[in-house]
Structure formats: C-alpha cells, structure tokens
Design brief:
A hairpin with a 7-residue loop joins strand 5 and strand 6 (98-103). This protein folds into two domains: 1-31, no CATH class; 32-140, Leucine Aminopeptidase, subunit E, domain 1 (3-Layer(aba) Sandwich). It is α/β, with parallel strands linked by helices. It has a four-stranded mixed beta sheet, sandwiched between helices. It has a three-stranded antiparallel beta sheet with strand order 1-2-3, with no helix packed on it. The chain has helices at residues 54-63, 65-78, 113-133; strands spanning 2-9, 12-19, 25-29, 40-45, 86-90, 98-103, 139-140. Helix content is 28%, strand content 25%. The radius of gyration is 16 Å and the shape is globular.
Length: 158
Amino acid sequence: MASAYSKKSSEKLKLEVKLVGCRTSIFIYKEDITKLQVDAIVNAANSQLHHLGGVAAAISRSAGPQMQNECDILIKEHGPIDVGECAVTKGFNLPAKIIIHTVGPNGHIVKDRAQFEMLLKSAIYNAVDAAVNLKVESLAMPLISSGTIYLKYTIPKI
C-alpha cells in the first residue's frame, strides 16, 4: 500500500511515495541527477563503461575525466560488466561521493520481453543492493534502459 503526492516548483516534478509499514520513502524527481545532494547516484551505463550519451554522458562530464579513467581501469582489470550487474566508482566532481554504474538491457539486442524485464529488474536490484552494502542513506537513480525499444516512459505534465 502506498500513498503519493506531487507538487510543482518551477519546472521540477517531485513525487513522494511512502510505503505503509516501512520507514523508506521514495522520491521521484524530474531534475538534473548530477546536481542532487545525495550520497550516491546510479549511472545508466553500458558494459564497457563508455559514457557516450544520455545520462551517462552528463554524469561523465560533471564527474570529470577521473571517472572515465577509473572506469577504464575497472574494465581492464575485471572485464566488461554483465547486463544486470553494476560497478562502483568515486563521485569525483559530483556532489554525490559514489557512482553505481548499472548495466540495463538494450531492447535492440534483447528481443524477448520477459528476458528484458528480468535483466532490467536485476540491474535495478543490484544497484540498490550495492547502495545498501555501501551503507548509502540517499540514492538517486535515473530511468534505466529508457532509450531502448521496449520502454516507453512518460513523465506527467503538471
């Protein structure tokens, strides 16, 4: 059971979901993830941790070149990140001190919808699990795999 409300302040959307019987609140924002004052952010990454477009490129630009250097070292030492898995780096120039790079499925490659959904759930679960293991108290996560064929996200206009 959840209750929710939304409010508009300038052009930002904020939605809070409180889970009954649980101390956790989930806030949904339409905002620049690179500017949020949180302990960690999740990056919608690819397997090679090359941050070429979308939110990954924005995070890379804001974090600075040190983030890509650390990602390159991770890939060289451990190999590509499997779809549904994640890797962790420092936040470098971001307000967030930790970046959890999670690899969601690509709908142009994963054609089976059930498999796509299972991989997407794994990517999200593993990112949250990494945050819990790192004792993160606040986490910002963008839409994962939102640029792929199976997902049609819409953000409501208020």
